[in-house]
Specification:
alpha+beta; Jelly Rolls; 6 domains; globular
């Protein structure tokens, strides 16, 4: 039985105890525990028709205050921004159950120099009313078909320093509810996100307490009765100790076990032992056990002092300084108190080679991702390790001569089990954390502030945490909130905790909070000389980033190695899989849809026109931007070839129309201000069509290194939009390294044909005036018989349709997986509702035979019957109770 199954079994065993604990907690909370500071008591009342007082009854304050009514509960809270996306089963607040909700938003923002503006919303799955100055500006019902709509009022007068806006939003909980509040200042051509934010989101003691509980691994010993909460609280696993003996000095392990907070103040690692002889004996046993895991490592020579000087530069430029603080005089640990995460006694702890290896791949030891990778080369890692070890007062090197005693190591293994170390720490892949090796303690819901591990009294029994009064108060607030929690699927709260957990605010601003502090700003520099100003030094603001970037690119940045700002010296770290949830929650917190935003269907010659506009004969974009790996002739801007993959079309239009309205102080000029609106829109769409060709696009005028127009697929797939025979202008050609290629018809959301050999000669699309068909030179190996590949209904159609009904299907774009293979997204309507389909065709060669394996993932109303066309006849698929199904078919020739 794997660790997850064992954990679930253990949670079921605890269910009865949790119920009893909750009943007791509810009784106590009714008299003793109020809501988090600044929030009113939940009241068991029927949902009001129009919740909340009007602006005349309570003055609007800066920020976004929400009154939420649902399930007979009414609460108030601050929202970071006036945007959100709530899926079925989710809620806008932990105290309100999922299902039907009505929310009144009172928004106060500073319009600055704007005097008149229109206001509106982008919304889906909800009804919306917008009010200002006591009158209704907009009142809109739920959009039909689950599609998003954007509506704007006429312009009204606004005033600085505070303009008030009120919205009432309601949804039934059966579909995703999305909201983005917009405004369009007079003179602007397109609407922008409303510039309102509430920095108060960082002051929620319950969320701070949740993070403190998570970082200390409390749920490892004290599982929650709620599996969703329990899994979230285990999102930051402790370091893997499987090979700890090969990394760390035994003498350091001994001192660490004796008193972790003395070695590293503020550490989440508790003190497990006292000062008596029995404790010292147990510490020695554990030291031998841990040293035996891959070690003890042999002694190493001290690092090269000259190399340490290089490491000092790397520390203060690549990003280490952001989390750990400036090291004045080059001495680790000399940063001002509270200015960063303490480094501890690194010289006594690490072998130089082991520290260098750790710096190159921290996730191998720290799977939580809080210590991220910084894309260090081998020499950089050695230099940084040398600096961190040599930059210590003399005499701090680990003493040598430790002799491993096998008998003690065996006793230490038993102590490891008895002390519940395995609740937090894995011992390699064979013994993951949280398995049966650890014995659970009382459930989380039964814990109280000031008791057990949280008892602040000197000499109290049990493990001892180094906690400030503030941390104790925050943990107490979180524990007190458990009895009143009615939903755990709160994307806004999960995002807040994720941003704080990963210390994102040290580099990035979000919703009026965060960004580099004054002490660190001087360490943010450009990687090479440029005139970009602060844009060339500081990482971007994360507010509304989920509506700027495509979901696939946002995931590539946070989870893999997607990077697009070569001008920044500080590096965007590599966090790994720990950031999967954060990538999704940034999209939801922006109120944006998960589906791609590819823009309108391009005109036949749009990409050719766009190519001219980008080049030196047009707007000369290439003087500031590189393109397809070719550097710019001047300022080092982002590479343009990936724009269509990285940005949503809606954001691209906003940015191109008026860059300064999107980012104050940007060096990006406004190109289309003197054009008529329709001319500007046509030019912007032409540039988009050209840049959407992606890697391998034809180079614009003024960029050297013209390439052949025959496209060859080498290390990774090529995906390009083009004109193709039998499909027209909405063809998507996909070339694969396996030599098996395909054409997808986006107008009908279906696979059109497959061929082998050379991918494409792009002369038709790119040479001369372009706009001609781009077809395989080898002919098709397999051609679709026509008609839809998906039909929704209880019975298969007979005969199968020979054409696709455009009213029943909507193409939703494509995303790329970790190997950059496309996944095509579509929605198919049927009697029971809409089915979302993700199709991924993957080439295969088996025993010399070519094939195309088609993976289908379906989502929609539970129990819905769907028919998938296959060579052997239609395949019946019934969606599960969770509304999901997966299927695989194969095409051969």
């Amino acid at each position: 039985m794997n660790s997850r199954a064992q954990r679930r079994e253990r949670l079921l065993d605890l269910a009865l105890l949790v119920i009893v604990a909750n009943l007791a907690a509810l009784a106590v909370a009714a008299f003793a525990i109020g809501p988090p500071p600044g929030l009113p008591e939940p009241r068991n009342e029927a949902p009001a028709k129009r919740p909340g007082p009007s602006p005349k009854e309570r003055p609007i304050a800066p920020g976004i205050r929400a009154k939420i009514v649902g399930g007979g509960i009414e609460v108030e809270r601050w929202l970071a921004t006036p945007s959100f996306s709530i899926e079925p089963g989710g809620s806008l607040d932990r105290r309100v159950p999922s299902g039907p909700q009505e929310v009144a938003l009172e928004i106060g923002f500073d319009p600055r120099r704007v005097e008149r503006a229109a206001f509106g919303v982008e919304f889906a799955g909800a009804s919306v009313r917008v009010e200002a100055g006591g009158r209704v500006l907009l009142e809109e019902a739920v959009p039909e078909g689950g599609l998003a709509r954007t509506v704007l009022s006429g312009p009204i007068a606004v005033s600085s320093p505070l303009t008030a806006l009120r919205l009432v939003v309601a949804w039934d909980g059966t579909r995703t509810a999305r909201l983005r509040v917009l405004w369009q200042p007079q003179g602007e051509r397109v609407p922008h996100p409303l510039p309102a934010a509430s920095p108060e989101w960082t002051q929620d003691e319950v969320l701070a307490g949740e993070l403190a509980v998570e970082l200390r691994g409390c749920a490892g010993c004290h599982p929650s009765g709620d599996m969703l909460l329990d899994e979230r609280l285990m999102a930051a696993p402790a370091p893997d100790l499987g090979q700890v003996g090969a990394r760390l000095a035994p003498e350091w392990i001994r001192s660490w076990l004796a008193d972790p907070s003395l070695v590293k103040p503020g550490t989440p690692m508790p003190r497990l032992f006292g000062d008596d002889e029995a404790s010292r004996d147990a510490i020695e046993d554990l030291t031998h056990f841990l040293a035996s895991l891959g070690g003890p490592a042999p002694a190493e020579d001290r690092p090269d002092p000259d190399l340490a000087l290089t490491g000092q530069v790397a520390y203060h430029t690549t990003g280490c300084v952001v989390c750990h603080g400036p090291l004045d005089g080059g001495v680790p640990g000399s940063a001002k108190p509270g200015s960063g995460e303490p480094l501890g006694t690194l010289a006594a702890k690490w072998r130089p080679a082991a520290l260098a290896a750790f710096l190159r791949d921290p996730a191998a030891v720290h799977p939580a991702g809080r210590m991220p990778g910084m894309f260090l080369g081998e020499l950089e890692a050695k230099a940084l390790a040398a600096f961190l070890i040599l930059g210590r007062p003399s005499g701090s090197a680990p003493p040598e001569g430790f002799a491993l005693v096998p008998e003690r190591a065996e006793r230490g293994r038993e102590a490891f089990r008895r002390r519940r170390c395995a609740a937090c720490h894995a011992l390699g892949e064979r013994e993951p954390a949280g398995d049966g090796f650890a014995v659970p303690g009382p459930p989380l819901e039964s814990l109280r502030e000031g008791r057990g591990c949280l008892d602040p009294a000197p000499g109290a029994r049990g493990v001892r945490y180094d906690l400030s009064d503030r941390s104790r108060r925050e943990i107490g607030a979180f524990l007190a909130s458990l009895s009143g929690r009615r939903c755990e699927e709160i994307p806004l709260d999960r995002l807040s905790v994720g941003l704080l957990r990963m210390n994102c605010l040290a580099c990035h601003a979000y919703a009026g909070a965060g960004g580099p502090d004054l002490e660190r700003q001087r360490y943010f520099t450009a990687s090479r000389e440029s005139d970009l100003g602060n844009e060339g030094r500081f990482p971007p603001d994360l507010t509304d980033v989920g509506a700027r970037l495509t979901p696939s690119w946002l995931r590539e940045i946070l989870v893999t190695e997607g990077r697009s700002r070569p001008h920044l010296a500080v590096r965007m770290p590599r966090f790994g899989g720990a950031m999967e949830a954060l990538a999704r929650d940034l999209v939801r917190a922006s109120g944006a849809g998960e589906e791609p935003d590819d823009g309108p269907e391009p005109a036949r010659d749009a990409s050719t026109i766009g190519r001219h506009l980008v080049g030196v004969g047009g707007h000369d974009c290439v003087s500031c931007h590189g393109i397809d790996g070719r550097p710019s002739s001047g300022t080092p801007g982002v590479d343009l070839a990936g724009v269509g993959e990285r940005l949503r079309h809606g954001y691209f239009v906003r940015w191109m129309e008026c860059p300064t309205a999107v980012r104050s102080g940007t060096k990006m000029p406004t190109f289309f201000g003197r054009d008529a609106p329709e001319d500007a829109a046509a030019k912007i769409d032409a540039i988009w069509a050209y840049l959407s060709l992606g890697e391998g696009l034809p180079l614009p005028d003024g960029v050297g290194g013209e390439r052949t127009l025959v496209l060859s697929v080498r290390g990774e797939p090529i995906v390009m939009r083009t004109f193709m025979r039998g499909i027209g202008p909405r063809a998507i050609a996909c070339g694969f390294p396996e030599g098996i290629h395909l054409a997808f018809d986006a107008s009908q959301s279906r696979l059109a044909y497959v061929w082998e050999g050379t991918f494409l000669d792009a002369s038709g699309a790119w040479a001369n005036r372009g706009g001609q068909e781009t077809n395989p030179s080898s002919g098709e190996s397999w051609t679709s018989p026509g008609g839809p590949d998906v039909v929704v209904g209880s019975e298969p159609p007979d005969p199968w349709p020979d054409r696709v009904d455009p009213d029943l299907v909507r193409f939703r774009g494509y995303r790329l997986d970790h190997e950059r293979r496309p996944v095509f997204l579509s929605e198919w309507r049927g009697p029971a509702g809409t089915i979302r389909v993700a199709e991924q065709p993957i080439p295969a060669r088996r025993d010399g035979r070519a094939a195309l394996v088609r993976h289908f993932s379906l989502e929609g109303p539970p129990g819905t019957t769907v028919w998938i066309r296959s060579p052997g006849g239609p395949i019946r698929v019934v969606l599960s109770d969770e509304g999901r199904a997966d299927l695989e078919t194969e095409v051969t020739w």
